[in-house]
Amino acid sequence: MNSYRSTKTTVSFINYHFVFCPRYRRKLFQRQDVEEKFKSLVKDICSSLDIEVMAIECDKDHTHLFLNVLPNRSPADVMAKIKGITSRKLREEFSHLQHLPSLWTRSYFVSTAGHVSSETIKRYVEQQKTRG
Questions:
Q1: Would you tell me how many other CB atoms lie within 10 Å of the CB of residue 118?
Q2: How far apart are CA 83 and CA 79, in angstroms?
Q3: Is the distance from CB of 59 to CB of 124 less than 8 angstroms?
Q4: Which of 48, 108, 126, 131 could be cross-linked to 20 through a Cys-Cys bond (beta carbons 3.0 to 4.6 Å apart)?
Q5: Would you list the DSSP string of 41-84?
Q6: Domains of the chain
């Protein structure tokens, strides 16, 4: 993971740290089955988009993703895909979410990270679950 990625025309090292919340800060991830399905969906989506999931963690009412992305994907594109697919699939699978018109807020936090801070951010994301 923490290495440069190459395509035919690019060499890149682009890491994004995303944080986003369910609408109305619903405590979506209090249920273990919802959290596990969300993480599984994100990994599947990222795999299909050639995005490396470096870390993923959920707190009760928000989630942190630390992703390594190729330069052909903007943060907005990544969020649109992840939020759109997870919203639809989670609402299909879990009856208590079916009445919701959408699962996520339109907003999100994104920050870039280079070599120096990547390990720090990865550790931070992984430690979110253990914090009080």
A1: 19
A2: 6
A3: no
A4: 108
A5: HHHHHHHHTT-EEEEEEEETTEEEEEEEE-TT--HHHHHHHHHH
A6: 12-130 (3.30.70.1290)
